[in-house]
Amino acid sequence: MGPGSDADYRGTPLTGLIFTSLLTAHRSTNTSPAIFGIARFDEAIFEDLTHLENILFSQVATFNKTEFTNHIVFKDATFSSDAGFTRAIFNTGVAFTATRFEKAAVFNEAMFRGNAFFLDTHFTGDGRFDDAKFNSHAGFSSATFAGKAHFTGTIFTEGANFAGATFNAECLIGPIVCTETLDLSGANFNAPVTIEAAAHRVQCIRTQWNSTASLRLRYSDVDLSGAVLTFPASVATHPSPFKKPDGVALDEGFASTHESRVRIKSVQSVDAAHLVLTDTDLSDCLFSGSFHLDQIRLEGRNIFASPPIGIHFTRRLWPIVTPVLTRRNTVAEEHHWRAFAANQPTVQASTDPPMRNWRNGPHHPDADQTPDPEDVAAIYRQLRKAREDAKDEPGAADFYYGEMEMRRHSRAWIEAERWLLQAYWLLSGYGLRASRALGWLALAMMTTILLMMTFGLPQESPKQEATGVIPADGGPVTFEIDKSDPRNPAGDRLTSKRFEKSLKVTLNSVVFRSSGEDLTTAGGYIEMASRFSEPILLGLAALAVRGRVKR
Do residues 90 and 109 lie in contact, with contact meaning Cβ atoms separated by under 8 Å? Predict the structure, then answer.
């Protein structure tokens, strides 16, 4: 044996002492690397070996079905040709530190029972981990995949860390199962990538997507904070359990404890112009600090948080009962601000929101971190524009409502404008709540009818009188027709006949017409007020209906 010699130890039990002697025989000097030609270690058993440092496999190296009983470290090793670890078993742990795989590295169906680290590992060829199983932590931090990365059917029991990894070739990662965190933070994807994963958490903090990316996920909490999107990237909920290419369903292990819908936790500091979210849960998503949010694309059915339903009490200048009986889409920042304001007397005294039962968030209770109503209004404004550009007018209506709510509570507006918004909200829910406007209209009509019956209609209709003088010589007769002034009612005013006349006056006022009835002086003013207010309420109701049905 010498440097570059072939080594065939298939099925051989190799202790640390024996393998150290083998490495010495393949070195030209004590400090030079051990150089192997064709290396065959299939089904070998490494019993107490811990370090394989400074080794060069110049030709094919196979460790298929090899069993490593102790923790082993391949440090600064170089595999110049194909490296095979198919069905290899690492009982304790393994680390491929600064290892270079110049051609294909195949770990298909390998079993990693301890921690597995591929730190600073360079895969020049394809890296294949199909059907591999990692029972402990798997670390690919700062690894470089110059070739394609294959992780079809791979199972990560504890977590997979690809932080800082670089992917230079088009690849399909998945379908995989990761019961803990799939960490892609700081990774660089320089070619198109598709990731299919059933993972508890997916972290893409400051991940750089330099080409198109498609994340098809299930059960995942996704954090996109600070991600750099230079090409379109989509995050979608995969509608059905993942299957391997042979049609066998992957055991996802989440069905009994988690909902399959993907939950987006944050898009802060993200340029959302290239972001597409499909069938995701945005109830807890933080939008503050993102860019071009008005260009985000929301496809399918995306779920937003809802306000607490019920009746809330608050005080401003007088006690106010605020019913919240209709659901609408709200962003997490509004929940966090309202929950924070509920515990801050200075904020609560200057606003009048229904404060109770709103969800706390990561900003609570630090006032410096909690978004202001102006910031939340800007988020709603951009989301509204995004839905309008997508021709989703009913979807945009909820964001318009949220924007107006934040403007109503903002102290940046002058008091008169805030009172105007207060009236707009109270009468019709900013022109979006038809039931509220119709309720006020019915109340106004009933009030008008009651006032007309009580004060507006005269005691009886005035009669016309004609007076004139007949000339003695039989000439023309001139008559003067006069009508007496209506007399204020007296006696029984609430009769069916007076109700019928009052209803006629009121219905004509709703459509801005005069009834032609004889009215008292007070009745004239009542009719004018009715003809001014009731058509406005009817118009607000029509506007609200149009906002919900417009396409």
Answer: no
* Number of residues that this document lists for the chain: 551
d(CA 291, CA 270): 6
Q: Locate all alpha helices (DSSP H) within 240-372, ordered by sequence.
A: 332-342, 345-350
- For CA atoms 210, 214, 220, 221, the dihedral sign is positive
Report the Cα 227 to chain-centroid distance in Å: 15
Report the run of H or E that residue 504 belongs to, with start and end. Answer: helix 496-510
Closest CA to 165 of 182, 185, 193, 138: 185
% of the chain residues with pLDDT over 70: 77
Q: Among 231-245, 261-275, 477-491, 502-516, which stretch is predicted with the lowest mean pLDDT?
A: 477-491
Pair 242, 286: CB distance under 8 Å: no
d(CA 130, CA 237): 23
Which pTM was predicted? Answer: 0.79
Mean residue pLDDT of the chain comes to 81
Residue with tokens 């009030």: 447
Task: List all residues 6 or more positions away from 488 whose beta carbon is below 8 Å from its beta carbon.
Answer: 455, 458, 459, 520, 522
User: Which of the 8 DSSP states describes residue 411?
Assistant: T
Cα–Cα distance measured from residue 167 to residue 211, given in angstroms and rounded to the nearest whole number? 11
Asked whether residue 72 carries a pLDDT value surpassing 80, the answer given is no
In this prediction, residues 414-435 reach a mean pLDDT of: 85
Q: How is residue 326 written in tokens?
A: 């209709």
What tokens does 421 get?
């918004």
The answer to whether the beta carbons of residues 108 and 128 sit under 8 Å apart is yes
Instruction: Tell me the angle at which helices 393-409 and 415-428 cross, rounded to the nearest 10 degrees.
Output: 140
Torsional class of 142: left (φ above 0), alpha (ψ -120 to 50), beta (otherwise): left
Higher per-residue confidence, 405 vs 479: 405
Tell me the per-residue pLDDT of 134-149, one tens digit each, with 9 for 90 and over.
999 999 999 999 999 9
Token pair in block for residue 500: 């019928």
Q: How far is Cα 347 from Cα 341, in angstroms, rounded to an integer? A: 6
Confidence at residue 475, expressed as pLDDT on a 0 to 100 scale: 66
Count CB-CB contacts under 10 A for residue 466.
8
- Cα 216-220-225 angle, rounded to 5 deg: 90
pLDDT greater than 70 at residue 302: yes
Q: Which residues pair with 201 in a beta bridge?
A: 181, 221
Which residue matches tokens 């260009």?
Answer: 295
Query: 26 near 7, Cβ under 8 Å?
Result: yes
Neighbour count for residue 340 (Cβ, 10 Å): 22
Strand, helix or coil for residue 199: strand
In 146-204, where do the E strands start and end?
149-150, 155-156, 159-161, 166-167, 171-183, 188-189, 193-203
Q: pLDDT band for 327, please (50, 70, 90 cuts).
A: confident
Residue pair 173/191 in contact (Cβ under 8 Å)? The answer is no
- The residue behind tokens 């989703």 is 392
